[in-house]
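Many groups now describe folds with learned vocabularies. In that spirit, our science desk offers one protein's residues alongside their backbone shape tokens.
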Amino acid sequence: MAPELSEGKTVAVIMVGGPTKGTRFRPLSLNLAKPLFPLAGQPMVHHPILSCKKIPNLAHIFLIGFYEEREFSVYCSAISNELKIPVRYLREEKAHGSAGGLHNFKELLMEYCPENIIVLNCDVCCSFPLKEMLDAHKAHGGMGTLLVKKVSPDVASQFGELVADPHSGELLHYAEKPETFVSDHINCGVYMFTPDIFKAIADVSTSRKDRALRRLNSFEALQSATKSIPTDFVRLDQDILTPLAGKKQLYTFETADFWEQIKTPGMSLRCSSLYLEEYRRTSPDLLAKGDNIIGDVFIHPSARIHPSAKIGPNVSISANARIGPGARLIGCIILDDVEIKDNAVVMHSIVGWKSTVGRWSRVQGGGDYNSKLGIAILGEDVCVEDEVVVVNCIVLPHKNLNQSVLEEIIL
């Protein structure tokens, strides 16, 4: 019997952005890189990394972004040891675009001679069906495959809209956030590419250089003046997907599972609940159990919960948190070193590091994840004194609240 051919290697790239990008995530990103913010008890970037781990012959995982290297050094070292797969952070010195960033680190990515390169955006929450997607990508035989999802037409324009052949899955047309409706199928920000992607990116840069060198007619000169994009700044969506659609190079893989974009603290609370729900299917051992636990709840082993406190559903409690007698927690993220005192209530809220919620106090949001004041957010080291009610407020770090507040941003 002839031996089976070994599968080619795969490398994964997770785009993590930078501190100037995630401004809508403040105040939670003021003292922690957004990709390390915990969802369902694990850093945001941890969820796609765990999904990448399931890919056969995965050689390396790279994180590419603009954060200082020190912000990721401890995490990358710990996760590399835990998963027994090297995870390395690569810092971009300047913006190259989502595709240009890949090309900027081409030599490092190609060290392993990979047959396929997985590219994911960190601020995406989904079940990441990477293994099934890679199988489909190999079957299509194209240069790339993108994860797509059908959404309601009224929200489609917030994303890249696309048209695909219903039988072959070929990408026929792509438009990034179009002004007029194109399709109710959107780009999910998860891709599979062969190394041919590097030639496609280089071709975009070369054509820009050629255009800059030759003499332009007056109309072209006017256009180039208004669209002076650097030659090495290449975007995956407008510069790769749009021109290559309909050329039998790109294909789609549709998911019917959950998918969200994590742009705001409200959406992080929504996505934390989605990951907690997924734990029930994939990692039930991560969920807390007990007579005082309702629904899906994650509790860090170092947290101390009084047995008379009632927790859940959709609650994530981080390291060294202390939850007092009679406290009630629903739909919230409790971060490290938080103290929730006796009989306090926290609902639809995020309570920041080292914060305190006093006895008989209430911190509550309305539960509208898309609205700016749809949830309550306490930044780091906020003290809500006893018997104070905080509803639909964003409170910046190091504040002391001794009176009740409603729908305010407290600077």
